[in-house]
Records
---
Amino acid sequence: MSYKSDIEIAQEAKMLHIKEIAAKLGLSEEDIELYGDYKAKIKLETYQRLMEQEKTAKLILTTAINPTPAGEGKSTTTVGLGQALNKIGKNTAIALREPSLGPCMGIKGGAAGGGYAQVVPMEDINLHFTGDIHAIGIAHNLLSAAIDNHIKQGNELNLDPTKINFKRVVDMNDRALREVVVGLGGTVNGQPRQDGYMITVASEVMAILCLAEGILDLKERLGKMVVAYSYDGEAITAKDLKVAGAMAALLKDAIKPNLVQTLENTPAFIHGGPFANIAHGCNSVMATKLALKTADYVVTEAGFGADLGAEKFFNIKCRFADLAPDAVVVVATARALKLHGGVSKDELNEENLSALAAGLENLEKHIENVQKFGVPLVVAINEFPTDTEPELSLIKERCEELGVEVALSQVWAKGGEGGIKLAEKVLELIEQPSDFKVLYDVEDSIEEKIAKIATEIYGAAKVNFAAQAKKDIKQLVKDGFDKMPICMAKTPVSLSDNPALKGRPMGFEVTVRKINVSAGAGFLVALTGNVMTMPGLPKRPAAENIDIDENGKITGLF
Ligand SMILES: Nc1ncnc2c1ncn2[C@@H]1O[C@H](COP(=O)(O)OP(=O)(O)O)[C@@H](O)[C@H]1O
Ligand SMILES: O=COP(=O)(O)O
């Protein structure tokens, strides 16, 4: 059976003018800054005014099991559930992250949902959108330039060029930039040193934009960014380099959340785009709080599986922003469960009940993990065209055996109509008490916090700290940075730090090789495995399928 592509469906959308979408949320034309007819930013003064209101909506988080590289449908389910709730008369908004151009041009494709559950205009959203990620990149690279310029201009801060832990960024998957040498060409060009590039969404500036609540908070956080150490081991910050103000100025528009709509005209706040394997993987606090103040129900998502995005949503975003989710949707797919049951990537479309049954252990662990945070949950079986009835029934039956709510979600194929059963289950859950609690106390030691996440959420038997990680901990304690939440940098395809361990690995050990401080974001990043901060393009990049005609119509973007 042939299906319309995402972009074909999106280009047929009957969009309302963004003023009408804003009006659905009680926002007037004075509250928004138009970016054409279908995109807008919310003014900061509107944000401040709304934050003074008592009202707050019910908050639903969409997470998933450990995904295949293509993703299992969190964004799609978030959009579809938002559409379904509106279809049954609930005033609902969604809050998503904005796509990075790297995956768009690489393997993943867009992050605007899929099928009949997409945000639109998807070409704009997936390409430059309102320029936020470009602004984040240039603010980040201003700081990089300031570091090398400081060394060139006399190095008053006694900065040790071998202790710069701040790479440059670009919003593209470009493995050739992972390790570079800068400052070549003689002293006129500065002092040669090894450097490298990360993908922009891995920048701490992105995390800061997603956690800040206004310009002054943004500027203060930017100033706290630790970018290097002096020869006598003192932390050197963006404020020491005197560029925090300029960085904040470059972000004056990026800090404002974006408003667009879904295919069924559900309001969608899209703002910030950190990945969940190398950063905290959640859209901005400001966008989420705007949605909570203007709608009655808010559906938001966190990246990759519940061991990454959801864990960080609970332990970092909710902790900092004083949020308490009322329900969680755990997206599961037959294809990902078969992968966890041992099926190879190119056989995922064939029915395999024994592999599916084996792979269900991954879903079971994620169910247990979400339950540790005290929030009611429902499993959404995201139906793919290749799924068979026996496969879908097997997943449903296991959930029922576990005493867990479960609903078949057909939002990709049917839009909101395909999510009504899921929406009804979510509404039932929301009536139950939610006893949300974080997993650890920030006052615990760094080792204890990391061990808690690895053993409780991943199922690890033990955590090993490499020599460098132990050195990092000593420095972090000396600098007073040890009482912060932890942002684990780990592979998304396994509960463990080993991509090869599928299903529900047991008895494994997690090794933390390095720990960086994101002092502006307010968390520590614990690096495991060989997590890439600069992905590479695949053999056949998605970019090869993208084109534009003489009328500006884009094709091949998915
Ligand atoms: N039920 C489905 N059937 C077919 N394709 C789907 C379905 N759900 C999602 N997709 C596609 O899979 C990819 C990943 O979906 P997405 O919602 O972005 O996942 P995630 O947010 O978990 O990464 C997208 O290309 C999307 O169009
Ligand atoms: O950070 C990763 O996000 P997705 O799960 O949406 O790819």
---
Amino acid sequence: MAPKAIVAPSILSADFANLGEECRKTIAQGADWLHVDIMDGHFVPNLTFGPPVVGMIRSHVDKPTENYGKGTFDCHMMIAEPKKWVKNFKKAGCDLYCFHYEAANSSAAESPETTSELRTSPRELIRYIHDNGMLAGIAIKPATKVDVLWDVLDSPHAKERPDMVLVMTVEPGFGGQKFMASELPKVQELRKRYPDLNIEVDGGLGPGTIDQAADAGANVIVAGSAVFGAKDPAEVISLLREAPPDMKRKADAPADRKTPVKKRSKNALTDDEAKARFRKGLFDNKVLSKYTAEYASSTPYKHSVISDLVDDGLLRKVRSEIKANVSFTPKETDIYKIHQSGDLANLDGLDNEALAKLPSLLALRDALYSQTFRDYVSHITGCGPLSGRKTDMAINVYTPGCYLLCHDDVIGSRKVSYILYLTDPDTPWQPEWGGALRLFPTVDREGKDGEVAKTPLPDPVKVIPPAWNQLSFFAVQPGESFHDVEEVYHAASKKELEKNGGRIRMAISGWFHIPQIGEDGWVEGAEEKAARKSGLMQLQGNPDQHDRPQARPVEIEKSESSQESDEIGFEDEADLEFLLKYLSPTYLTPDTIERVAEHFEENFSITLPDILHPKFAAKLRKYVEAEEGKALPEDSETIEKGAWKVARPPHKHRYLYLQPTVSEESPLKELLEVFLPSRQFRVWLQMATRTVVKSHDLTARRFRHGKDYTLATGHEGDARLELNIGLTPTDGWGDEVEDDSDGSDDEAEAPARKGANGKAKANGSSNGKGKGKGKAIDKEIEPKDEIEVGGHEVYMAGDDDSNEDAAIYKSSAEDDNILFFQAAAWNKMTLVLRDSQTLRFVKYVSRAAKGDRWDVSGVYEIEEQDEAPEDENGTSAVGVLDDSEEEFQGFSPDEDSDSD
Ligand SMILES: O=C(CO)[C@@H](O)[C@H](O)COP(=O)(O)O
Ligand SMILES: [Fe+2]
């Protein structure tokens, strides 16, 4: 007889203050059994309860009328001496006593009050449980091999054979842990050998993991947090129950079957059903051959573009459903600015209620992941079998100003990336609106060690504009499949935007994965191997040695620097005169330097407006404005024929830069090569920051609007001092309200401003930072009067958790993480003491900006401070700013600064 499907909610996650009622309710909501976790604080590092509590709750739940019947108390004994408690638990009302194999060779004493020199064994214990009138289960922890069970399962004596095997899919001890798919091969093996066996899985089970467990062959499903944490536990229970019947079919199959169990597709379509959901003729051999040939010869890496993929009527319905039922939330990090469908971040995570509103979307998903279409994609790409179960897709919307910067899409088991565009079918997308998928070429570079690494070049060479019902896809290749989504450009006016249908670039982006456990083509360890390989490729594939610019620290003679640190003030007239040529006089008075130093010491950062002397600043401004007036070549190669170089690789950063020594005379060269490296400025800097500088490394940077950015990176080694002088001559960068120091926190006021607590942050109203409110997309696109143009520099707390979506969602620039923020500005210096964990980035500069973002950036290695100001965590750099920090509001404009 094939084992029946059983759902056993684990009451570990129930309300213990109300346990009897919770148990009664759960059975009434459709549960078959109750899974009762008994923990003794020895076998597992947690305590729950003993026989008295089990006895109390027993009175709230009717006893089962048959073996395995409704109301079975499935006691999961995570205790060190299981034999001692058999009788007590029987008395309390336990029906199935499931001990751990790892605890089975323990005392043979028959009660907790007694001791015994003898040891029991799995076989003996099972017999003993049976003799005491209960069903017997045997459980194994993740570290235990399944092979240890053959001895009991193959015992010639029925009394010594267990009625159930429990395969733990988490480390026992706590509810709410992550499901370990790595344990499923044990289930598969058990099912293969024992088609009739009750196989229970426990730990991390819920709607998102049930399929894998059921596919592997489990029929008893324990779920704690997924049931008791659900708004509607009955719904979850029924969902869990939906999975096992399929397994039942597998269990009915001949026991000696050698092939792995067949995959359980969500809504498996026949070949004809699947084909009917695509455009007519798509599956013709000639058409397939054409796409296959095109794919093979495409550059810079293999990709495919298929127009009119889906049946037009179906896709129109999908679009309407999404518009009516899906809400979008603006999300923004260093690498993207998009609107994400909140709960649809992954369709797999949706509950039944939400799914019911999206029938066409589900029909589309089932078609895309049908065997028929997967075979089609496999044929074109030649990348082998693809999973029909891991249906990884999300809906993203790009409105004007949105983009996704360069990355290679490599994560876990992803095999093919795809984008299916759902732009307005009746207002065709125009390439000049942006939003294209752009592919970057890579070059092989030989490193110092002779190793060859692929690195992407800064300019994309293939541009694929969106189009209604067009599918673009490519095989995910570590270190190779670099691509971005071009900014969707702002329209010149509201009227034009309306005419363009809002320029809403809606698309489904998703991935095909390698086959999962239980599916045809699944290879044990393949997923882990792919993950290891991609991690390695990402580390090795882009070693810093090929990055540009390379750090060029100029060391300061040790004797010279420590001597300077003792000096306070500029005794020498000539030194003062030199500094006065470049610095605003305000910043040269001992009083001001003292105040700057105090502020810096307290906050590890400071912003100094009007830093450069007005006369020098005016000269500089004239130069920068003139440069900006000149047309720049589009491609990096031509640009690099001049003085400016292009920072790369683009999955780390892209901007133009100058490093000393610059050939052409200019005030910028003077700043970079005369003033900033001077001994006099170093003395000033050391006084203003109370540090001792060991080296400096200076770079002038120009971030072209519509092109450039840096992504968040940390740095290695000790805390260092970072200087930045904003040299952006245009306005509209969100810096204008900065002098508003009334402490109010009216965030909607400007694109970027300082928060009331003094902590710098970006505007929550439209920057989103992952906290925006979900809105239907039509509402969201209402054009704002103020356009955010980016270009701000952000320091944020590093995140140790490697987010699953890290390749795209590099860093979640949540407000809470932001430690320091500076909008692009003119003549403003920022100084930040930064530790190695602090991430820093310059936000992509929108094409809507009035001009480019210019600055000079300096990195100073400093001597370790003897009496470093430390916070309570003992750290002394940006990276540990707390909420009490106060932003230095700068100095009020001075009379003698005849500012331009
Ligand atoms: O035995 C255990 C934990 O040791 C389980 O029964 C958990 O209680 C299951 O909880 P979820 O992982 O389903 O939340
Ligand atoms: Fe359990």
---
Amino acid sequence: MDAMTAATEGFGVPIIDISPYIRNGDPADRAVVAAKVDAAACSVGFMQIVGHEIPSAVIEEFTAVMDDFFALPLEVKKAYRTPPEINRGYAPPRSESLSLSLGVEQADRMNDFFEAFNVGVEAREYPDLALPEDHYAANTWPAVDHFEAAVSAYFAEARRVAHTLTRIFADALDLPADFFEGFTDHSLDVLRMNNYALPPGEIELDGELTGMGEHTDYGIVTVLWADQVKGLQVLDRQGRWHDVSPEDGALLINLGDLMARWTNERWMSTLHRVKPPIVDGSIERRRSAAYFHDGNIDAMIATLPSCVGAGSRYSPITVGEHIGAKLAGSRAGRPNPYAQREAERVRHAMRRGLGQQ
Ligand SMILES: O=C(O)CCC(=O)C(=O)O
Ligand SMILES: [Fe+2]
């Protein structure tokens, strides 16, 4: 399957069947997949994958427990909050602002109305490495039947898919097959479950309210499960926003900033945001779950020699420094001063008057 979905005229998020990699198939078939991934990464920076072999029962149980958690009263959910520097547990509506991860300040700060629940890789999984307990924090699990088991099952599947994707990336970039393994063998991965829903009374159509502000994802690659309800919008290279929703059974994949740094922007960390539809004064509920594959905290990310060309746009940085500055923006409200290149792309779109759709 290699159809393009025409989200909007002239713009598409390609569908790529990755089963030749999942099933360790024929090298020729794998080369076709790698070439399609390279083409998508060079153009939109978003793709949708099928053939990932995550059992539908795992996804169904996962989304069911997400629903059970988000249906709890706000005060109960708030018991699962953690301090901003710990990217775990519950984040209520309007407690984060993704545009601050880029250093772009909106008129209203902290106005993203998504609520989220985060789980991630824990230090205790790697007892020999003495990983920092703040980044690799222990998870907090809500008292919801089957939640920990169902979320952990999906987490393991998304993690498997993310690692497979980096094997495809190595082939697509003509790197040794195991190139990314040394950067991801204790990867700082986080799964953010997002719920976009506000009671009707809370909607103020003041133009500032947004599901999730514009941002690039911070790490290597994101595996995004999403409802087919509209709301996710992706910025193209001309500065126009396009609606994107996954085809049946497909997962959305987008590249993060570390991939843009490695490739000196041959591959893009695409800007995206979420604006769920408002129907009869109510926000149409939408859910998503983003699995962020961010790399080892101590990994140094420097532009690949094959991509430096006339000079890299980026200085080397560790995963820990990069992710730390991004989270200080989105979670603690300290605008990130180190994301000028992504921030300039947002401002460019706003200047062209194309910021709203
Ligand atoms: O809700 C979505 O579709 C996107 C979520 C997202 O971009 C994120 O969690 O980083
Ligand atoms: Fe995102």
---
Amino acid sequence: MLRTEDCGLPAELAATVFGVGRTTIAAPDSARRRGHEPDRDDGRTPAHAVRKLPFADWLPEQRWYAGRSRTPFSVTCAASTSLDDVLDLVLVDVEYTDGSSELYQVMVASGGEREVEHRRLATIGAAGGRTGYDALYDSDAAHRLLALVEAGRPVGDLVFEPEPGARFPGTAAPRLFDSEQSNTSVIFGDEAILKVFRRVSTGIHPDIELNRVLARAGNPHVAKLLGSFETTIAGEPCPLGMVTEYAADSTEGWAMATAAARDLFAGVSGPDNFASESYRLGEAVARVHADLATAMGSDPAPFPLVAVLARLHATANEVAEIKPHVAAIEERFRVLTGEPVTVQRVHGDLHLGQVLRTPANWLLIDFEGEPGGPLYERRLPDSPLRDVAAMLRSYEYASYQLLGDQDDESLAALAQDWADRNRAAFCDGYAQASGVDPRVTDALLAAYELDKAVYEAAYEARHRPGWLRIPLRSITHLVAA
Ligand SMILES: Nc1ncnc2c1ncn2[C@@H]1O[C@H](COP(=O)(O)OP(=O)(O)O)[C@@H](O)[C@H]1O
Ligand SMILES: O=P(O)(O)O[C@H]1O[C@H](CO)[C@@H](O[C@H]2O[C@H](CO)[C@@H](O)[C@H](O)[C@H]2O)[C@H](O)[C@H]1O
């Protein structure tokens, strides 16, 4: 049975009560142990009402809500900070009946009739005589949030931090980024993109951390970080969002690659068929790796046998189609026991949807690692081959998704040909820029590809069962090679 609570906290757990920014924060499970609901409302801000908004009904409608396959047990407002009279930053804790939990960030604009886009989706509901909206749909509120990052002043427990020398857009009109994402982004004119993290947790956010390091290293293959903001939970930093320069006139690598592969299928492709782009992309990834290694170091380590086996067995328990391949995959992993690799900070979830082609060059975005895992895990050093293998997998996706559920061998041969050509071009570019050809350690590279394909099998089984056959096909090929 779903239980919705509001989020007043006992005094000893409440973090702070500030001037404009009144913050109420504590570990969510502590919040539920409270015996009373202290009323902190001073009449100036609607925080009391904000905490009573019907988040339990609204959250499951949001595309970034990750709890659809689970049953919520309680939905609790764990923290709220009033940014001004009509804008509150709220952290909503969702606990599920299976014992798992998530903390979601919602920026709430409240008041009477507001000018908001997508009113039905944006309306959280009413409490205390006021209606609460998702503020990211509200252009005024989005501007106020951006202004807070630019000003860099603390509000309650919230810390807003502009990067040194960052130039923020002035009055550029904001628009909500309209696509499937795990976070929510607002674009300001052609100048900046504000990404508000939805599922938040304590730790250092790799997307902010690595973008900062690469911007300071002058790396040309990232969108320049302009600022970020975070809060504190139980003494730990909890990153909430970031602003980067917007790459106007850019196209996602996935759109370009799939268009090129489609041309080949239609018999209208030129001789290059994306290969020169793949070469330049390989160079860009190598330069990002080089700057990350220089700035953050690298170390020798053994091939991560325990981790890849753990993922394999967990996936086999979840995805029946993996079971027949387990022994063969395991063998591929076990021959690499003790095999030395070099580890450093890497992207961690690289694919053609995470790269943008600007008129000038390729940019890598979204350095947040594999979504779902805890932040500390996503920041662990890993082999650069992890990223290379992930890109190689993406070329197979780009061509094989065009087959749909057809088993046409001549089409499959075309798909493989396109993928092989672009995979080779990517590795050539990577080798040229790094001085190390990833194909030299072919068994290692294949093992990282296998590990990624196993991850993808779990991802597809959960999110896109119709695409499960793409990683399964690759697994069959990789273990047969
Ligand atoms: N700096 C940028 N310039 C232009 N478009 C961007 C930029 N950053 C992100 N995008 C667009 O927003 C989409 C989602 O961004 P991403 O960082 O991957 O969000 P999420 O973490 O929610 O997946 C990208 O696929 C890209 O199309
Ligand atoms: O972009 P996210 O960080 O959310 O990454 C997740 O979703 C990706 C799909 O959007 C998924 O990528 C897989 O599908 C891509 C095509 O849609 C393909 O290019 C990738 O190679 C493939 O792994 C990614 O694995 C997942 O973590």
